[in-house]
Amino acid sequence: MFDKETGFMRAKTLDGQFKQDFSAERWGTDYAEGSAWQSSFATYHNFKGLIKAHGGAEAFNAKLTELCNQHPHYEVGGYAFEIHEMSEMAAVDFGQVALSNQPSFHLPYLFNYVGKPASTQVLVKQLMTRLFHTGWDGYPGDEDNGSMSGWYLFSSLGFYPVCPGSGEYVIGIPLFDRATIHLANGKTLMITTEGNQPHANFVSAIHLNQLCHDRLFFTHDELMAGANIQFTLGVVPTERQYNEQQTPFSMRVPH
């Protein structure tokens, strides 16, 4: 249950009270392979509802920023000893964004839901370029049925399916100058990137089939129809504002 006082999902006792002696860094017991930090943002179908619970977009953005800027500290908690997911989070060293494990895969993309794509873009690019390589430790964590590869492949194309079944892919930042995907229906998806430099951490513009694309997501139908997506990257972020219709899917809109 969401606790407004702490801003975390917390367990309750049988009489409906939040459990005492709470620590947001404590793993296990009430949380699987993580702590309250990794487990409090998993409302994949209803992020706007979570934003409202936090008190609005500004407060939610502040919580996400705090998530990223935390030290990767942990308490072994209910596990009673250090499991490898704890060690990997500390080694990854991206705050409490433990990309080494599945519960954190969607976290970098959540800034888009409050119209702050620049934070998503720089975070995703740094995760891709610093945590994945061809060395012996080229993955930041275990593969688990292709999930780590799936995160990297989607993210490197410039988008990620935060909420499967919604028909939307939340936009991040592409890694390659050019990518061609031959779709099962015979169509082709072409993705090109201008200004693709190591220090270009932000998306300045997106064109879909030569038309300006101002939404923070692509739809499944747009991609499967065969499309030409052109990203333009920049060194500093734009100051663009986004309305409710330009942010990704959620079942609930805050009032």
UniProtKB/TrEMBL annotation:
GO cellular component: cytosol
Gene3D superfamilies: alpha-1,2-mannosidases domains, GH92 mannosidase domain
One GO term (biological process): glycoprotein catabolic process
Residue ranges of domain Glycosyl hydrolase family in the record: 1-234
Any one GO molecular-function label of the UniProt entry: peptide-N4-(N-acetyl-beta-glucosaminyl)asparagine amidase activity
Protein name: Alpha-1,2-mannosidase family protein
Originating organism: Brochothrix campestris FSL F6-1037
